[in-house]
Design brief:
Radius of gyration of chain A: 27 Å
Strand order of the largest sheet of chain A: 1-2-5
Strand content of chain A: 5-15%
Oligomer: heterodimer
Distance between the termini of chain A: 33 Å
Strand content of chain B: under 5%
Largest sheet of chain A: 3 strands, antiparallel
Order of helices and strands of chain B: HHHHEHEHHHHHHH
CATH architecture of chain B: Orthogonal Bundle
Number of helices of chain B: 12
Largest interface: A-B, 49 and 52 residues
Order of helices and strands of chain A: EEHHHHHHEEHHHHHHHEHHEEH
Number of strands of chain B: 2
Helix content of chain A: 55-70%
CATH class of chain B: Mainly Alpha
Number of helices of chain A: 16
Amino acid sequence: MNIGAIQIEKKHVVPLWARILNPIIFVFIGLAFSSILIMAVGFNPIKVYSKMISYSFLNMRGINGSIRAGLPLMFCGMSVSIAFKMGLSNIGAEGQYAMGAILGSAFVLFGPELPVSVRLVVMFLLCAVGGSLWALIPAALKACWNVNETIVSLMLNYVALLFMDYLCYGPWMAKNQTTPISEAIPKEMYLPNIGSTGINSGVIVAIVIAMLLYIFFKYTTAGYQINVIRNSKNSAEYAGINIRKYVLIIMGLSGAVAGLAGFVQVTGVVHRVQAQLPGGSGYTGIVVAYLSQFNPIVVIIVSILFGGLVNSSAAVQIMGVPSQIATMLQGSIMVFVIAGEFFNHYRITLNRSRSNVNKSNANTSSINESNANKSNVIRSNVGKNVIKSNAGKKASNVSNINNVSDMSCEEKHREVREIAQ
Amino acid sequence: MTAFVVSICSAAIVYAVSILYAAIGEIFTQRSGIMNLGIEGIMLMGAVSGFLTVYNTNNLGLAILVVILVGALLGLVFAFFTVTLRADQTVCGMAFLIFGSGLSGFIGKNITGIATSVKFQKIEIPLLSQIPIIGDIFFKHDILVYLMYLIVPLSMFYIYRTKPGLILRALGENPAALDKAGINVFLLRYIYVMFGCAMAAISGACISLSYTNFWNEGMTGGKGWIAFSLVAFSGWNPAGAALGALLFGAISIIGINMQIYLPGIPSQFYSMLPYLATVIALIITTGSFRKKRSEEPTALCQSYDRENR
């Protein structure tokens, strides 16, 4: 592309350090942008940010709180990542989380009295099944009739949350309560802290699942096939990969992991079911997944940082800053990181040699020049031209090639006109 | 009985209009080849900015102007991302959804739940509102509804009967051909994305300034998504969208009214109706079991890149 004196050129190889550094830089730019908004509402952004950091990350209690707040985000983030790995956008993590929590808690609250370990295992499985079944609705519609999974999974969020509302305001409501919460689960079923650290052991569940997912996507045939499907549906079909089967498997898996967010939240944090239990984690999970570039292990780290964000929004609320600051920051971070992606894929250079452009316009012999400069210009007789440019070329070359391409287009048109006549 | 039917029809129209602005805007955006998933976030920004303006100035005209500007500004940013930076449109839409709902909650925190004294008043059109039944249903609304009566036929005419409309349709089908014909694909996409976002913002303002007269965090409650699915439902056709919106309007209004007549069923199940209806409508209209060719623009969701043409 050629905008005035600025040249935009595709990069073909992105080094690892650039892929890591780039989002980090743009997170800071996002924070800088948000500080303008914070100032606009009448607060000192430096004070707000330093308060948030010192509350969430500079002492053990804060770190524990951040991890606890980040627990559901880990699972939702992983859930979204799984679907994105195949190019599916499952934005229904919120509803799958709710359904997982409902099914798992139904067993604990109303199921038979069994040994604690058995009940925990059954609850774990039921949470996964609940989320999975809820995700299979959009998956089945996608697999059978190619119905857009984004909209269906999102609509089902509202249905699931309303169902949860119904349970918590109706049949499940705890006795002598006016708030929509259920009875607490038995004390012995609470997820313990790790040793004396105060860190919730739910994080171990998350790490184990992240490891399993990493291995699944990296080292198994299924993982490889999923990657093929994402990169090119056509090649996958030619290779005989059953795409429909994978839509069901991946969405089911994605829903199961989202349902487990319900498991850790109920057993580890709130110890009961309440209305609006997910509280937007499903949506934040999308941001987390994107920032982690859909890598389940990175999801855990990002979730803890985001958990800190949520956690500290309560701390700055005392200063009078609206608690919505957390969502606002998440949104602007995501927007800026997406913008930053561009610089990973394209290189922008300023074209200083404007005279070159004019020369190539006037003189076709510049094609030879650019040929001499190690770029391949292949022109076929029909006028159809394919231009390949090697990465890492000087800017002046690119300008030549662009002009050549425009020129040969005109030639092509002329030829077509001649044939028509 | 007549009064009951009339009140339901009239309320359905008000509901329909509040999603129709966003849906028609999105039809234009998608026909130009860009998919904006972030309508919900932009609607919330429109709702909060319109409400803030009215809260501070009591001036509805100024509020609509501000709403359109806010929407267009967000559209400009969205277009910059998807057209110029060629970012993934799905991810970008999600980012706008989250950013919009977060930012609207953030700046609207202090005015949550406060009612303004001014909102769009119902105007009875002389003569027309005198017609029995029809007058009651169609001609006792506020100005945003009457505007919509004009926008639907005008947008139909624009898309199917004018030269710019032809170019718009081509933009979503084959941008490369337009580019070769000397038409600025990038500029046009910018314009249509900004138009779509401005319309979505007006939709938000409908909710905070006409439907109700207060602001509440997340008050659009999925209406942006209903508008989004309406686009596919309508086959990218404004008149179809209007019919669909009336259908959704009727379903949710009937749901609310049924609550009064059948209190045995918990209210939450009635609230589920519009979402379930959306899913069912989506299956019926876009499911691949249909023989008819889908109207979906071929280049939808593909950023145009000259190097790849």
